[in-house]
Predict the structure.
Amino acid sequence: MAEAEFDCVVIGAGPGGYVAAIRAAQLGMKTAVVEKDTVGGRCLNYACIPAKAVLRSADLASEAREAGEFGVNVGEVSIDFDAVQKRREKVISTLTGGVAGLFKKNGIESIAGEASLAPSGGAGGTGGGGAGSEGDGPIGVIVDGRQLTARTVILATGSVRRSIPGVELGGPIIGTEEAWALAKLPKRLAVVGAGASGAEIASGYARLGSEVMLIEVAERVLPAEDADISRLVERGLKRQGMQVMTGTTIEDVQAGKDSVRFSHGSGEAVEVDRLVIAAGRAPDSDSLGLAQAGVELDERGCVQVDGAQRTSRAGVYAIGDLVRGPALAHKASDEGVIAVEDAAGRQTHPLSYVDIPRATFCTPNVGSFGLTEEQAREQDHEVVVGKVPYGAVGGGTVYGDRTGLVKVIGDARYGELLGGHIVGSRATELIQELVNIRMLEGGFPELARIVHGHPTLSEAVMEAGRAADGWLIHG
Ligand SMILES: Cc1cc2nc3c(=O)[nH]c(=O)nc-3n(C[C@H](O)[C@H](O)[C@H](O)COP(=O)(O)OP(=O)(O)OC[C@H]3O[C@@H](n4cnc5c(N)ncnc54)[C@H](O)[C@@H]3O)c2cc1C
Protein backbone atom coordinates (compact mmCIF):
# COMPACT_ATOMS: atom_id res chain seq x y z
CA MET A 1 0.00 0.00 0.00
CA ALA A 2 1.46 3.38 -1.02
CA GLU A 3 2.20 5.62 1.98
CA ALA A 4 2.12 9.37 2.36
CA GLU A 5 3.22 11.06 5.57
CA PHE A 6 1.61 14.15 7.08
CA ASP A 7 1.72 15.96 10.40
CA CYS A 8 -2.07 16.30 10.33
CA VAL A 9 -4.79 14.47 8.39
CA VAL A 10 -8.33 15.84 8.61
CA ILE A 11 -11.22 13.56 7.62
CA GLY A 12 -14.15 15.61 6.32
CA ALA A 13 -14.02 19.06 4.70
CA GLY A 14 -17.03 20.72 6.34
CA PRO A 15 -16.81 23.88 8.49
CA GLY A 16 -15.16 21.83 11.22
CA GLY A 17 -12.64 20.04 9.03
CA TYR A 18 -11.65 22.78 6.61
CA VAL A 19 -11.10 25.35 9.36
CA ALA A 20 -9.07 22.80 11.37
CA ALA A 21 -6.93 22.11 8.29
CA ILE A 22 -6.23 25.79 7.64
CA ARG A 23 -5.31 26.42 11.30
CA ALA A 24 -3.06 23.32 11.26
CA ALA A 25 -1.27 24.60 8.15
CA GLN A 26 -0.88 28.05 9.77
CA LEU A 27 0.78 26.33 12.73
CA GLY A 28 3.33 24.76 10.38
CA MET A 29 1.86 21.26 10.08
CA LYS A 30 2.04 19.42 6.75
CA THR A 31 -1.70 18.88 6.32
CA ALA A 32 -4.09 16.85 4.17
CA VAL A 33 -7.89 16.87 4.08
CA VAL A 34 -9.82 13.82 2.90
CA GLU A 35 -13.35 14.39 1.61
CA LYS A 36 -15.61 11.73 0.14
CA ASP A 37 -18.10 14.17 -1.39
CA THR A 38 -17.52 17.89 -1.96
CA VAL A 39 -15.25 20.37 -0.22
CA GLY A 40 -17.24 22.60 2.16
CA GLY A 41 -19.09 19.67 3.74
CA ARG A 42 -22.81 19.49 4.23
CA CYS A 43 -22.91 23.04 5.61
CA LEU A 44 -21.82 24.70 2.38
CA ASN A 45 -23.29 22.20 -0.07
CA TYR A 46 -26.63 21.08 1.35
CA ALA A 47 -27.46 22.73 4.68
CA CYS A 48 -26.69 26.18 6.15
CA ILE A 49 -25.66 27.97 2.98
CA PRO A 50 -28.26 26.66 0.49
CA ALA A 51 -30.95 27.16 3.15
CA LYS A 52 -30.00 30.78 3.63
CA ALA A 53 -29.67 31.38 -0.12
CA VAL A 54 -33.27 30.21 -0.72
CA LEU A 55 -34.50 32.06 2.39
CA ARG A 56 -32.96 35.24 1.01
CA SER A 57 -35.22 34.87 -2.04
CA ALA A 58 -38.22 34.36 0.27
CA ASP A 59 -37.22 37.46 2.28
CA LEU A 60 -37.04 39.54 -0.88
CA ALA A 61 -40.46 38.26 -1.96
CA SER A 62 -42.00 39.32 1.38
CA GLU A 63 -40.29 42.70 1.25
CA ALA A 64 -41.55 43.24 -2.30
CA ARG A 65 -45.09 42.35 -1.17
CA GLU A 66 -44.83 44.91 1.64
CA ALA A 67 -43.07 47.54 -0.47
CA GLY A 68 -46.32 49.43 -1.14
CA GLU A 69 -46.42 50.49 2.53
CA PHE A 70 -43.15 52.31 1.92
CA GLY A 71 -44.46 53.98 -1.21
CA VAL A 72 -42.66 51.63 -3.57
CA ASN A 73 -44.87 49.92 -6.14
CA VAL A 74 -43.46 46.73 -7.59
CA GLY A 75 -46.58 45.16 -9.07
CA GLU A 76 -47.56 41.56 -8.44
CA VAL A 77 -44.76 39.42 -7.03
CA SER A 78 -44.11 36.11 -8.78
CA ILE A 79 -41.52 33.44 -8.07
CA ASP A 80 -39.23 31.93 -10.71
CA PHE A 81 -38.26 28.84 -8.73
CA ASP A 82 -35.71 27.69 -11.34
CA ALA A 83 -33.92 31.01 -10.90
CA VAL A 84 -34.09 30.69 -7.10
CA GLN A 85 -32.41 27.29 -7.35
CA LYS A 86 -29.84 28.47 -9.89
CA ARG A 87 -28.84 31.25 -7.51
CA ARG A 88 -28.58 28.71 -4.68
CA GLU A 89 -26.20 26.64 -6.81
CA LYS A 90 -24.14 29.70 -7.68
CA VAL A 91 -23.84 30.74 -4.03
CA ILE A 92 -22.68 27.22 -3.15
CA SER A 93 -20.09 27.02 -5.92
CA THR A 94 -18.72 30.48 -5.07
CA LEU A 95 -18.21 29.48 -1.44
CA THR A 96 -16.91 25.94 -2.03
CA GLY A 97 -14.55 27.35 -4.66
CA GLY A 98 -13.35 29.78 -1.98
CA VAL A 99 -12.56 26.90 0.39
CA ALA A 100 -10.65 25.03 -2.34
CA GLY A 101 -8.69 28.26 -2.94
CA LEU A 102 -7.87 28.54 0.77
CA PHE A 103 -6.53 24.95 0.73
CA LYS A 104 -4.23 25.87 -2.15
CA LYS A 105 -3.11 29.12 -0.53
CA ASN A 106 -2.24 27.30 2.69
CA GLY A 107 -0.44 24.38 0.97
CA ILE A 108 -3.05 21.84 2.12
CA GLU A 109 -3.34 18.63 0.12
CA SER A 110 -6.96 17.89 -0.79
CA ILE A 111 -7.59 14.16 -1.20
CA ALA A 112 -10.83 12.80 -2.68
CA GLY A 113 -12.11 9.55 -1.19
CA GLU A 114 -13.63 7.86 1.83
CA ALA A 115 -11.25 7.60 4.79
CA SER A 116 -11.14 5.23 7.72
CA LEU A 117 -8.72 4.82 10.60
CA ALA A 118 -6.30 1.91 10.40
CA PRO A 119 -6.85 -0.56 13.25
CA SER A 120 -4.87 0.35 16.36
CA GLY A 121 -1.63 -1.58 16.64
CA GLY A 122 -1.50 -1.87 12.80
CA ALA A 123 -0.44 0.58 10.12
CA GLY A 124 1.93 2.45 12.34
CA GLY A 125 -0.64 3.19 15.06
CA THR A 126 -0.18 2.03 18.63
CA GLY A 127 -3.42 3.32 20.05
CA GLY A 128 -5.10 2.49 23.27
CA GLY A 129 -4.01 5.60 25.20
CA GLY A 130 -6.50 7.53 27.30
CA ALA A 131 -7.65 10.97 26.28
CA GLY A 132 -4.62 13.13 25.79
CA SER A 133 -2.02 10.44 26.51
CA GLU A 134 1.29 11.36 24.91
CA GLY A 135 4.06 9.72 23.00
CA ASP A 136 2.24 7.30 20.69
CA GLY A 137 3.43 6.72 17.13
CA PRO A 138 1.84 7.87 13.89
CA ILE A 139 -1.76 6.99 13.12
CA GLY A 140 -2.78 5.23 9.93
CA VAL A 141 -5.59 6.53 7.73
CA ILE A 142 -6.75 4.46 4.77
CA VAL A 143 -8.29 6.18 1.75
CA ASP A 144 -9.53 3.88 -0.98
CA GLY A 145 -6.59 1.49 -0.56
CA ARG A 146 -4.02 4.28 -0.12
CA GLN A 147 -2.35 4.61 3.27
CA LEU A 148 -1.65 7.97 4.90
CA THR A 149 0.08 8.41 8.25
CA ALA A 150 -0.02 11.39 10.61
CA ARG A 151 0.80 12.29 14.21
CA THR A 152 -2.54 14.08 14.43
CA VAL A 153 -5.85 12.98 12.89
CA ILE A 154 -8.96 15.13 13.12
CA LEU A 155 -12.29 13.34 12.65
CA ALA A 156 -14.77 15.85 11.19
CA THR A 157 -17.29 13.70 9.32
CA GLY A 158 -20.39 15.53 10.55
CA SER A 159 -23.88 14.08 10.76
CA VAL A 160 -26.62 12.44 8.71
CA ARG A 161 -30.38 12.93 8.64
CA ARG A 162 -32.57 10.77 10.82
CA SER A 163 -36.28 10.01 10.73
CA ILE A 164 -39.03 9.54 13.30
CA PRO A 165 -40.43 6.17 14.39
CA GLY A 166 -42.63 4.56 11.76
CA VAL A 167 -41.56 6.85 8.93
CA GLU A 168 -39.03 5.81 6.31
CA LEU A 169 -37.24 8.53 4.37
CA GLY A 170 -37.33 8.16 0.58
CA GLY A 171 -39.32 9.34 -2.45
CA PRO A 172 -41.55 12.26 -1.48
CA ILE A 173 -40.59 11.87 2.22
CA ILE A 174 -37.44 13.94 2.46
CA GLY A 175 -34.93 15.33 4.95
CA THR A 176 -34.04 18.98 5.51
CA GLU A 177 -31.13 19.02 3.06
CA GLU A 178 -33.31 17.78 0.18
CA ALA A 179 -35.98 20.30 1.13
CA TRP A 180 -33.76 23.17 -0.02
CA ALA A 181 -32.85 21.53 -3.33
CA LEU A 182 -36.30 20.70 -4.74
CA ALA A 183 -36.61 20.80 -8.52
CA LYS A 184 -40.15 22.19 -8.38
CA LEU A 185 -41.90 24.52 -5.94
CA PRO A 186 -44.26 22.17 -4.05
CA LYS A 187 -47.91 23.10 -4.04
CA ARG A 188 -48.46 21.53 -0.60
CA LEU A 189 -45.67 20.88 1.87
CA ALA A 190 -45.78 19.45 5.39
CA VAL A 191 -42.86 19.86 7.77
CA VAL A 192 -42.57 17.67 10.86
CA GLY A 193 -40.42 19.28 13.54
CA ALA A 194 -40.53 23.00 14.36
CA GLY A 195 -36.94 23.35 15.55
CA ALA A 196 -34.60 25.74 13.73
CA SER A 197 -34.42 23.79 10.45
CA GLY A 198 -38.13 22.96 10.30
CA ALA A 199 -39.15 26.56 11.06
CA GLU A 200 -36.80 27.85 8.35
CA ILE A 201 -38.18 25.45 5.72
CA ALA A 202 -41.80 26.24 6.63
CA SER A 203 -41.20 29.99 6.63
CA GLY A 204 -39.20 29.90 3.39
CA TYR A 205 -41.69 27.88 1.36
CA ALA A 206 -44.78 29.62 2.76
CA ARG A 207 -43.41 32.94 1.52
CA LEU A 208 -42.39 31.46 -1.83
CA GLY A 209 -46.01 30.43 -2.35
CA SER A 210 -46.42 26.82 -1.11
CA GLU A 211 -49.30 25.83 1.12
CA VAL A 212 -47.44 24.81 4.30
CA MET A 213 -48.33 22.77 7.36
CA LEU A 214 -45.85 22.84 10.29
CA ILE A 215 -46.28 20.04 12.82
CA GLU A 216 -44.47 19.86 16.17
CA VAL A 217 -44.81 17.26 18.90
CA ALA A 218 -43.79 19.72 21.66
CA GLU A 219 -46.26 22.31 22.90
CA ARG A 220 -44.59 25.21 21.09
CA VAL A 221 -42.52 25.99 18.00
CA LEU A 222 -38.76 26.42 18.51
CA PRO A 223 -39.11 24.47 21.77
CA ALA A 224 -35.47 25.05 22.75
CA GLU A 225 -35.91 28.84 22.69
CA ASP A 226 -37.24 31.08 25.47
CA ALA A 227 -41.06 30.76 25.72
CA ASP A 228 -41.66 34.47 24.90
CA ILE A 229 -39.68 34.08 21.70
CA SER A 230 -41.56 30.90 20.66
CA ARG A 231 -44.85 32.72 21.11
CA LEU A 232 -43.85 35.60 18.83
CA VAL A 233 -42.38 33.24 16.24
CA GLU A 234 -45.57 31.18 16.13
CA ARG A 235 -47.60 34.34 15.61
CA GLY A 236 -45.22 35.45 12.83
CA LEU A 237 -45.31 32.08 11.08
CA LYS A 238 -49.10 31.98 11.14
CA ARG A 239 -49.14 35.44 9.60
CA GLN A 240 -47.35 33.89 6.61
CA GLY A 241 -50.47 31.84 6.00
CA MET A 242 -49.21 28.46 7.19
CA GLN A 243 -51.03 26.05 9.47
CA VAL A 244 -49.04 25.51 12.69
CA MET A 245 -49.91 22.48 14.82
CA THR A 246 -48.13 21.98 18.14
CA GLY A 247 -48.53 19.05 20.55
CA THR A 248 -49.27 17.00 17.42
CA THR A 249 -47.85 13.80 15.93
CA ILE A 250 -48.35 12.22 12.51
CA GLU A 251 -49.54 8.69 11.82
CA ASP A 252 -50.43 6.29 8.99
CA VAL A 253 -47.83 7.75 6.67
CA GLN A 254 -48.17 6.38 3.14
CA ALA A 255 -45.81 7.50 0.41
CA GLY A 256 -46.98 7.46 -3.21
CA LYS A 257 -44.87 8.25 -6.25
CA ASP A 258 -45.20 12.01 -6.03
CA SER A 259 -47.26 12.63 -2.90
CA VAL A 260 -47.63 11.52 0.72
CA ARG A 261 -50.77 10.83 2.74
CA PHE A 262 -50.79 10.90 6.52
CA SER A 263 -53.05 11.67 9.40
CA HIS A 264 -52.45 13.96 12.36
CA GLY A 265 -53.94 15.08 15.66
CA SER A 266 -57.62 14.27 15.58
CA GLY A 267 -57.06 11.66 12.87
CA GLU A 268 -57.68 14.03 9.99
CA ALA A 269 -56.04 12.73 6.78
CA VAL A 270 -54.13 15.01 4.44
CA GLU A 271 -52.16 14.67 1.23
CA VAL A 272 -49.09 16.76 0.41
CA ASP A 273 -46.51 16.82 -2.41
CA ARG A 274 -43.58 16.56 -0.01
CA LEU A 275 -43.29 15.60 3.66
CA VAL A 276 -40.14 17.00 5.27
CA ILE A 277 -38.83 15.27 8.38
CA ALA A 278 -36.86 17.82 10.40
CA ALA A 279 -36.19 15.58 13.38
CA GLY A 280 -32.54 16.21 14.12
CA ARG A 281 -29.38 14.42 13.02
CA ALA A 282 -27.13 11.52 14.00
CA PRO A 283 -23.29 11.41 13.96
CA ASP A 284 -21.79 10.09 10.68
CA SER A 285 -19.22 7.68 12.06
CA ASP A 286 -20.03 4.28 10.49
CA SER A 287 -17.32 4.44 7.83
CA LEU A 288 -14.51 5.46 10.17
CA GLY A 289 -13.57 2.09 11.72
CA LEU A 290 -13.66 3.65 15.18
CA ALA A 291 -13.97 0.48 17.29
CA GLN A 292 -10.89 -1.24 15.80
CA ALA A 293 -8.96 2.00 16.06
CA GLY A 294 -9.67 2.36 19.79
CA VAL A 295 -11.91 5.43 19.52
CA GLU A 296 -14.79 5.27 21.98
CA LEU A 297 -18.34 6.58 21.65
CA ASP A 298 -20.44 8.16 24.39
CA GLU A 299 -23.89 6.97 25.47
CA ARG A 300 -25.58 8.95 22.65
CA GLY A 301 -23.36 7.45 19.94
CA CYS A 302 -21.26 10.60 19.55
CA VAL A 303 -17.47 10.30 19.57
CA GLN A 304 -16.33 10.83 23.15
CA VAL A 305 -13.99 13.79 23.59
CA ASP A 306 -12.49 15.86 26.36
CA GLY A 307 -12.38 19.68 26.52
CA ALA A 308 -9.53 19.79 23.99
CA GLN A 309 -11.47 17.51 21.57
CA ARG A 310 -9.14 14.54 22.25
CA THR A 311 -10.67 11.10 21.77
CA SER A 312 -9.73 7.92 23.64
CA ARG A 313 -7.05 7.24 21.01
CA ALA A 314 -3.94 9.38 21.48
CA GLY A 315 -3.40 11.77 18.58
CA VAL A 316 -6.97 11.39 17.29
CA TYR A 317 -9.35 14.32 17.79
CA ALA A 318 -13.03 14.67 16.90
CA ILE A 319 -15.03 17.84 16.23
CA GLY A 320 -18.33 19.21 14.95
CA ASP A 321 -21.57 17.27 14.58
CA LEU A 322 -19.67 14.08 15.39
CA VAL A 323 -19.34 15.11 19.05
CA ARG A 324 -21.62 16.43 21.83
CA GLY A 325 -22.92 19.97 21.90
CA PRO A 326 -25.17 21.93 19.55
CA ALA A 327 -25.01 20.91 15.88
CA LEU A 328 -23.86 24.27 14.52
CA ALA A 329 -21.28 25.15 11.90
CA HIS A 330 -19.51 27.80 13.99
CA LYS A 331 -19.25 25.36 16.90
CA ALA A 332 -17.60 22.83 14.56
CA SER A 333 -15.11 25.43 13.33
CA ASP A 334 -14.16 26.54 16.82
CA GLU A 335 -13.65 22.96 17.95
CA GLY A 336 -11.39 22.47 14.91
CA VAL A 337 -9.20 25.35 16.05
CA ILE A 338 -9.09 24.00 19.62
CA ALA A 339 -8.13 20.50 18.41
CA VAL A 340 -5.21 21.49 16.18
CA GLU A 341 -3.93 24.10 18.63
CA ASP A 342 -3.88 21.40 21.32
CA ALA A 343 -2.08 19.05 18.93
CA ALA A 344 0.48 21.80 18.29
CA GLY A 345 1.09 22.12 22.04
CA ARG A 346 -0.75 25.43 22.44
CA GLN A 347 -2.85 26.17 25.49
CA THR A 348 -6.57 25.89 24.70
CA HIS A 349 -9.75 26.10 26.71
CA PRO A 350 -12.99 24.12 26.30
CA LEU A 351 -15.94 25.73 24.54
CA SER A 352 -18.79 26.98 26.70
CA TYR A 353 -21.64 25.47 24.67
CA VAL A 354 -24.37 27.49 26.33
CA ASP A 355 -22.72 30.75 25.25
CA ILE A 356 -22.52 29.86 21.56
CA PRO A 357 -24.89 32.05 19.54
CA ARG A 358 -27.88 30.24 18.04
CA ALA A 359 -29.43 31.67 14.91
CA THR A 360 -32.69 30.72 13.21
CA PHE A 361 -33.28 32.41 9.87
CA CYS A 362 -37.03 32.01 9.59
CA THR A 363 -39.19 35.13 9.54
CA PRO A 364 -39.25 36.50 12.16
CA ASN A 365 -35.52 35.98 12.66
CA VAL A 366 -34.35 34.55 15.99
CA GLY A 367 -31.00 34.96 17.71
CA SER A 368 -30.20 33.71 21.18
CA PHE A 369 -27.45 32.62 23.53
CA GLY A 370 -27.16 31.43 27.13
CA LEU A 371 -30.00 30.56 29.47
CA THR A 372 -33.69 31.01 28.85
CA GLU A 373 -35.67 32.69 31.64
CA GLU A 374 -37.01 29.28 32.69
CA GLN A 375 -33.52 27.73 32.85
CA ALA A 376 -32.15 30.68 34.83
CA ARG A 377 -34.93 30.31 37.40
CA GLU A 378 -34.37 26.53 37.64
CA GLN A 379 -30.68 27.20 38.34
CA ASP A 380 -31.56 29.47 41.29
CA HIS A 381 -30.21 32.68 39.88
CA GLU A 382 -31.62 35.92 41.23
CA VAL A 383 -33.27 36.50 37.88
CA VAL A 384 -33.89 39.92 36.36
CA VAL A 385 -35.44 40.25 32.94
CA GLY A 386 -35.19 43.21 30.59
CA LYS A 387 -37.71 43.12 27.74
CA VAL A 388 -37.93 45.79 25.07
CA PRO A 389 -39.94 45.70 21.83
CA TYR A 390 -38.26 47.03 18.69
CA GLY A 391 -41.08 49.60 18.55
CA ALA A 392 -39.65 51.31 21.66
CA VAL A 393 -36.70 52.70 19.70
CA GLY A 394 -36.67 54.82 16.56
CA GLY A 395 -35.12 52.12 14.38
CA GLY A 396 -38.03 49.72 14.82
CA THR A 397 -40.53 52.24 13.45
CA VAL A 398 -38.24 53.64 10.75
CA TYR A 399 -37.37 50.21 9.31
CA GLY A 400 -40.88 48.80 9.67
CA ASP A 401 -40.56 46.20 12.44
CA ARG A 402 -42.18 47.34 15.68
CA THR A 403 -43.09 43.79 16.77
CA GLY A 404 -39.55 42.47 17.32
CA LEU A 405 -38.43 41.88 20.90
CA VAL A 406 -35.16 41.88 22.81
CA LYS A 407 -35.11 39.98 26.09
CA VAL A 408 -32.06 39.81 28.32
CA ILE A 409 -31.80 37.55 31.34
CA GLY A 410 -29.50 38.62 34.14
CA ASP A 411 -28.53 37.79 37.69
CA ALA A 412 -29.31 40.78 39.95
CA ARG A 413 -26.53 39.91 42.41
CA TYR A 414 -23.58 40.47 40.06
CA GLY A 415 -25.08 42.14 37.00
CA GLU A 416 -24.22 38.94 35.11
CA LEU A 417 -25.67 38.56 31.63
CA LEU A 418 -27.00 35.00 31.66
CA GLY A 419 -28.83 34.92 28.35
CA GLY A 420 -30.09 36.97 25.45
CA HIS A 421 -33.07 36.31 23.20
CA ILE A 422 -34.01 38.40 20.19
CA VAL A 423 -36.85 37.93 17.72
CA GLY A 424 -37.40 40.23 14.75
CA SER A 425 -35.47 41.77 11.86
CA ARG A 426 -31.74 41.06 11.95
CA ALA A 427 -31.96 39.19 15.27
CA THR A 428 -29.36 36.75 13.93
CA GLU A 429 -26.88 39.63 13.63
CA LEU A 430 -27.92 41.57 16.74
CA ILE A 431 -27.39 38.62 19.11
CA GLN A 432 -23.63 38.74 18.63
CA GLU A 433 -23.34 41.93 20.71
CA LEU A 434 -24.74 40.16 23.76
CA VAL A 435 -22.40 37.20 23.28
CA ASN A 436 -19.43 39.55 22.98
CA ILE A 437 -20.36 41.38 26.18
CA ARG A 438 -20.53 38.10 28.07
CA MET A 439 -17.27 36.81 26.55
CA LEU A 440 -15.51 40.04 27.56
CA GLU A 441 -16.90 39.60 31.07
CA GLY A 442 -19.31 42.50 30.90
CA GLY A 443 -22.83 42.35 32.29
CA PHE A 444 -26.19 44.00 31.63
CA PRO A 445 -25.16 47.22 33.53
CA GLU A 446 -22.28 47.62 31.04
CA LEU A 447 -24.61 46.89 28.09
CA ALA A 448 -26.87 49.66 29.39
CA ARG A 449 -24.05 52.23 29.28
CA ILE A 450 -22.36 51.41 25.96
CA VAL A 451 -23.18 54.16 23.46
CA HIS A 452 -25.17 52.79 20.52
CA GLY A 453 -25.68 54.46 17.13
CA HIS A 454 -29.03 56.08 16.32
CA PRO A 455 -31.44 55.14 14.80
CA THR A 456 -30.53 51.44 14.92
CA LEU A 457 -32.23 48.28 16.11
CA SER A 458 -29.21 47.77 18.36
CA GLU A 459 -30.58 50.58 20.55
CA ALA A 460 -33.31 48.11 21.57
CA VAL A 461 -30.56 45.74 22.74
CA MET A 462 -29.06 48.52 24.85
CA GLU A 463 -32.49 49.43 26.22
CA ALA A 464 -33.04 45.80 27.26
CA GLY A 465 -29.85 46.11 29.33
CA ARG A 466 -31.25 49.27 30.90
CA ALA A 467 -34.58 47.55 31.56
CA ALA A 468 -32.76 44.74 33.41
CA ASP A 469 -30.78 47.39 35.33
CA GLY A 470 -33.99 49.19 36.31
CA TRP A 471 -33.75 52.38 34.26
CA LEU A 472 -35.38 51.80 30.89
CA ILE A 473 -35.50 55.15 29.06
CA HIS A 474 -37.69 54.34 26.06
CA GLY A 475 -40.61 52.35 27.37
C1 LIG B 1 -30.81 22.04 6.58
C2 LIG B 1 -29.76 22.44 7.58
C3 LIG B 1 -29.53 23.79 7.81
C4 LIG B 1 -28.56 24.17 8.73
N1 LIG B 1 -28.35 25.50 8.95
C5 LIG B 1 -27.39 25.89 9.82
C6 LIG B 1 -27.10 27.28 10.03
O1 LIG B 1 -27.75 28.17 9.47
N2 LIG B 1 -26.12 27.61 10.89
C7 LIG B 1 -25.37 26.66 11.54
O2 LIG B 1 -24.48 27.02 12.30
N3 LIG B 1 -25.62 25.34 11.37
C8 LIG B 1 -26.59 24.93 10.51
N4 LIG B 1 -26.81 23.60 10.31
C9 LIG B 1 -25.94 22.62 10.99
C10 LIG B 1 -24.59 22.52 10.24
O3 LIG B 1 -24.83 22.17 8.89
C11 LIG B 1 -23.69 21.49 10.89
O4 LIG B 1 -23.59 21.75 12.26
C12 LIG B 1 -22.30 21.55 10.26
O5 LIG B 1 -22.36 21.25 8.88
C13 LIG B 1 -21.36 20.56 10.95
O6 LIG B 1 -20.10 20.69 10.38
P1 LIG B 1 -19.09 19.46 10.34
O7 LIG B 1 -17.80 20.01 9.81
O8 LIG B 1 -19.09 18.77 11.65
O9 LIG B 1 -19.71 18.41 9.30
P2 LIG B 1 -20.34 18.45 7.84
O10 LIG B 1 -20.66 19.81 7.36
O11 LIG B 1 -21.42 17.44 7.89
O12 LIG B 1 -19.16 17.91 6.93
C14 LIG B 1 -18.65 16.62 7.09
C15 LIG B 1 -18.00 16.17 5.80
O13 LIG B 1 -17.35 14.91 6.05
C16 LIG B 1 -17.48 14.11 4.88
N5 LIG B 1 -17.26 12.70 5.26
C17 LIG B 1 -18.07 11.90 6.03
N6 LIG B 1 -17.49 10.69 6.21
C18 LIG B 1 -16.32 10.73 5.53
C19 LIG B 1 -15.27 9.78 5.36
N7 LIG B 1 -15.29 8.58 5.94
N8 LIG B 1 -14.21 10.12 4.57
C20 LIG B 1 -14.16 11.35 3.98
N9 LIG B 1 -15.11 12.28 4.13
C21 LIG B 1 -16.16 11.99 4.91
C22 LIG B 1 -18.90 14.40 4.40
O14 LIG B 1 -19.03 14.07 3.02
C23 LIG B 1 -19.00 15.89 4.67
O15 LIG B 1 -18.65 16.65 3.53
C24 LIG B 1 -27.79 23.19 9.41
C25 LIG B 1 -28.03 21.82 9.17
C26 LIG B 1 -29.00 21.46 8.27
C27 LIG B 1 -29.23 19.99 8.02
Observations:
- The two ends are 72 Å apart (CA to CA).
